Amino acid sequence: MTYPARSGEPSTEVVVNAGRLWAGGAATAVVAALIAIAGILLARGVLDVNVLAPEGEGTWGDADTTLYALYCALAALIATGLMHLLLVSTPRPRSFFGWIMGLATVVAAILPFVTDASTESQIVTALINLAVGLAITTLLNGVARSAVQLRRTAA
């Protein structure tokens, strides 16, 4: 994206290092999945709250635990794609990304409360979703900062 300059000044072009952005996005996906796993293990193993698995499935739970972690990783990759799109197409992309991700995180934190799960499970799931959303948002904002270069072009 090129930003026009005032008369006689060079324009500024935004160059996105896609490799750096997506490598950071992949690392963010790993962090998101690990936050989900740590949250579930804490809830089930320490707090004795049944999250994402029926009672009696043990601390790890069932296949839903793995699937939830994979969904969190997928959310990070989708967010990376959103960030890439915003970086190459919009002014103030990190501000828009922050708002979009902030609102998506609020939705993810509210979502457990529309299920028939126990109140404890709803609260713990909401907190895990909140932690994952905040991690994705903050990590990708930092990655985007390091993946963008501004180049001056001739007027």
What does this structure look like?
This protein is mainly alpha-helical and 155 residues long. The protein has one domain. It contains 4 helices and 3 strands. It has helices spanning 18-46, 63-89, 93-110, 119-147; strands spanning 2-3, 11-16, 148-153. A 3-stranded antiparallel sheet has the order 1-2-3. It is elongated, with a radius of gyration of 19 Å. The model has no long low-confidence stretch (mean pLDDT 87). Keywords: Membrane, Transmembrane, Transmembrane helix. It holds the Pfam family DUF6069. InterPro entries: DUF6069. The chain crosses the membrane at residues 21-47, 67-89, 96-115, 121-143.
Task: Please give a handful of descriptors for the protein shown.
mainly alpha, 155 residues, 3 strands, three-stranded antiparallel sheet
- Helix fraction bin: 55-70%
Series of secondary-structure elements, N-terminal to C-terminal: EEHHHHE
User: Termini, distance in Å?
Assistant: 15 Å
Number of DSSP strand runs: 3
Main beta sheet: strand number and arrangement?
3 strands, antiparallel
What proportion of the residues form beta strands (DSSP E)?
5-15%
Q: Catalogue the unreliable spans.
A: none
Instruction: Kindly report the oligomeric state of this protein.
Output: single chain
Strand order of the largest sheet: 1-2-3
From the helix content, strand content and strand pairing, which structural class follows? mainly alpha
The gyration radius over C-alpha positions equals 19 Å
Average pLDDT number = 87
Shape annotation: elongated
> Into how many domains do the coordinates divide?
1
Number of helices: 4
Transmembrane segments: 21-47, 67-89, 96-115, 121-143
Keywords: Membrane, Transmembrane, Transmembrane helix
InterPro entries: DUF6069 (IPR045713)
